[in-house]
Structure prediction request, 312 residues.
Amino acid sequence: MKFPTASTPLRMARRLAYRNFAIGSRLRYLAYSRSRDRTKQPLLVYQMGKVGSSTVVNSLSRYPLDYEVFQVHFLGRDWIRKVQKQFREASRVHGRFIADEHLFASEYLRNQMDRGSRDGRWKIITLIRDPIARNISGFFQAFPIYFAAEAAELEKEEAPMEEQMPRLVDLFVNKFQRHEVPLEWFDVHLEPQFGIDVYSRPFPTGDGYQRFENDNAELLLLRLEDLDRCGPRAIGEFLGIPDFQLLNANVGDEKEYSSAYSRFRKEIRLTADYVDRMHDSKFMKHFYSGEERRALRDKWLRADPVGAGDAS
Prediction:
């Protein structure tokens, strides 16, 4: 379906986008579902987002696998409905259909799980990252979705980036409601779906990765900060791929928003309360040593916290 041209009043376009989101979403899901290779075992790159998953997925695409790779962030039916609602509202505000293939992948896999239509254990790769760096990257990339009205207003104003930056910083610090996502993701999204508790035994910070398994799933957990060092060997052993190599992907400097993102990182000022809330969490204490947490705290509280990095 084609949306109205630019000459059509924006209000009408927004109504049509909102009204027809369900139709467009259903058609795209059906196309996605029909294109899946059901002869292959699913390999889930299942993670919280902005933790290096695109690097893993793009690297895997270079190898002939007996798996079909799915990159997803949530599998619970309630979360699928929640994200559908967010995309529907963003479509209404921006006056065009907005959705993400991750959403269709989640729905497809959820349907497979509900039907019990596959045999064997699930094969899963997940990743973790310093939650503050992850939150900044996630906020900036998903800004048009989480802050659809503000994004549309900023786009309409066409103000120089230096004038927009204070408002973006304020939105992140005071109105972004997803700061707790990395701290809670494993309890909310992994254990309920696959019965694996990643906190059940100490994480080997020196190795940078860890494996888990039960009757339902096999899981490889990788720490982004160690991905270049340990990722090739850990993933190669997990999937039986000799001499596996990582191909960097989704680097911030290659993205459309890289200039604005770099400026945002330079201008963001975080309070000690916020940094301590993130770094004193169960998540950080489990996956990062005391020395690592102190170094990260010093980085985020210094005058110019450049180097937050970017990953997907």
